[in-house]
Amino acid sequence: MSTSASFSSSVTAIAVILATMGVVAAIEIVIPLHARGRWHRDHLAPNLALTLLTFGTNVFLNVALLALVVFLETKRFGLLGLLSDAPLAAAFLGIAALDLAFYAAHVSWHSIPALWRFHAVHHSDPAVDVTTTIRQHPVESLMRYAAMAAMVVVVGPSAAAFAVYRVASAVNGLLEHANIRAPRWLDRLLSLVTSWPHMHKVHHSRRPAQTDTNFGNLFSVWDRLFGTFTPSWQGTQIHYGLDGLDVPRVQSTRGLLALPFRGLAPGDHGEPHSARPGVVGATASPDVLIKSVVSVSDNCS
């Protein structure tokens, strides 16, 4: 696949994702999980701004990673090259391997203070809906693609498997963040395989005991296998966001972009967070956190 073709397919994928976001947003109006409040209105502009910024970054990263996938496939490089006579099995294992790479990377973003600083931009949203899906710092895009690239080099998935995973991951991401009500029986059934509709919402809790669970991107099996699973029904009762970061000035586009670079990283949920050593001091108060973000955002102006 040529670079121009890869770029064109990436742009088309972005257009499809935006259209799907619109459809999901319409469904949120019809069957909302939670009634729309102030934050559902106030977070729209910064969430969409970060989404568009992420698309602008990812279109180039995706082209580069797809080129790597195609190159390795032609060389039959990677563990899956041994399954060239079983393409369906190789494709399934390739998709599973990419999803496992995301799970491992996601756990590291919550465990390593320097990485949590950037991932906290996504977690700081006080109201989770479809616009939260791609609310992320540009540096997190680099983190995500680095994780995928590492797994690509190891296993050598086919271009087809890579494309299927990227599409499935995007669609699932929109659904798992969507503010859509689902019957408990359906939620319980779907959580046996995937992380939507309510399983991932547990991960957006202000409580560390819930936040540091349900890391899976596409499949729920990794959380079940590695002991980080929290039942999906709890996702209907979550208080979203990060304590100390609900101030509108912090929740602006500029404030969110500045968030990782302030003196103290977020993530203590208003209490010492021993699960993320070094992320924040036990004595850090919400006022200190807010002032440091505002100070950095002012310096960026």
Rg, Å, rounded: 19 Å
Q: What is the N-to-C succession of helices and strands?
A: HHHHHHHHHHHHH
Low-confidence stretches: 264-301
Average pLDDT score:
87
Gap between N and C termini: 42 Å
Structural class: mainly alpha
Number of strands: 0
Structure overview:
- The chain is an all-alpha fold.
- Helix content is 59%, strand content 0%.
- The protein has helices at 3-30, 38-42, 44-74, 87-111, 113-123, 138-155, 159-177, 184-190, 199-202, 208-211, 221-225, 253-258, 286-299.
- Helix 3 (44-74) runs parallel beside helix 6, helix 4 crosses helix 6 and helix 4 crosses helix 7.
- The longest helix has 31 residues, at 44-74.
- The radius of gyration is 19 Å and the shape is globular.
- It starts with a helix and ends with a helix.
- Mean pLDDT is 87; it is low at 264-301.
Keywords:
globular; 13 helices; mainly alpha; 0% strand
Question: Can you describe this structure in just a few lines?
Answer:
By secondary structure, the chain is an all-alpha fold.
